[in-house]
Amino acid sequence: MALSPTAAQRRVIAAADPVTGRLKGAPAQLAALVKRGLAFRHPRPPHDHFLTPAGHRIREAADESADPGTPGTPAAPDAGGVFAARVGGEEPAPGDSGPARLREVRGAWQGLLELRRMTHPDGSTDRPCGWERSHLVRAAALALEAAGHRPAGPDGGDGYRVRATPQPEAVAVYEPDGTALRACAATLERAGWQVGEHTESRTRARYLLASPRKV
């Protein structure tokens, strides 16, 4: 059973990468988290430390008091400058564009693939992992942004929008351009999602319903 972390260790956990769980901190702090079962040291160089599932639960519990939003509204970006994939409809942060943003997105996607490899018993990277299943909107948005799709701006227009749905393991992806919508479907399928195209009964708008593939 994982031991409860100290206040200082909680700060290290809170600062972990939200996608990969990669930790930064003093060697003694990281070793203490490993001892408590909240982190592990990767066996391959550079031997970075990552949160275990128990560590991820502690990190996410700290966010429970935050407003989770409502279906149909953009997810709030992480506080403190932590990377967050664009779900579409939000106002980009100052300076959050250009080559620096591309590097962040690509790094986050590579980190997510590494998380898949580390957490799947067979080491596969072709299907979503547990973190993605518990962060559906952000995971789907990261797959789209990493593949070069453009998110919708705060005033709407062309670009994808990823939204939560009443279904427990599905997100909706909207894109007013039909060709771009089909391209989003192909990207998500390559990223390990099951995708179907649907039509809203009221507006007749086409959208994707996407769920993480299990096998």
Structure description:
The chain has helices spanning 7-14, 27-35, 53-61, 98-119, 130-134, 136-146, 178-190; strands at 22-23, 39-41, 49-51, 161-164, 171-174, 193-199, 206-212. The protein is built from seven helices and seven strands, in the order H-E-H-E-E-H-H-H-H-E-E-H-E-E. Helix 4 (98-119) packs across helix 6. It has two domains: 1-65, Orthogonal Bundle (Arc Repressor Mutant, subunit A); 84-212, no CATH class. Strands 4-5-7-6 form a four-stranded antiparallel sheet, with helices on one face. Strand 4 (161-164) and strand 5 form a beta hairpin. Residues 61-82 are annotated as: Disordered. Residues 67-81 have a biased composition (Low complexity).
Write the layout of secondary structure elements.
Elements: H1 7-14, E1 22-23, H2 27-35, E2 39-41, E3 49-51, H3 53-61, H4 98-119, H5 130-134, H6 136-146, E4 161-164, E5 171-174, H7 178-190, E6 193-199, E7 206-212
Antiparallel strand pairs: 1-3, 2-3, 4-5, 5-7, 6-7
Helix pairs in contact: 4-6
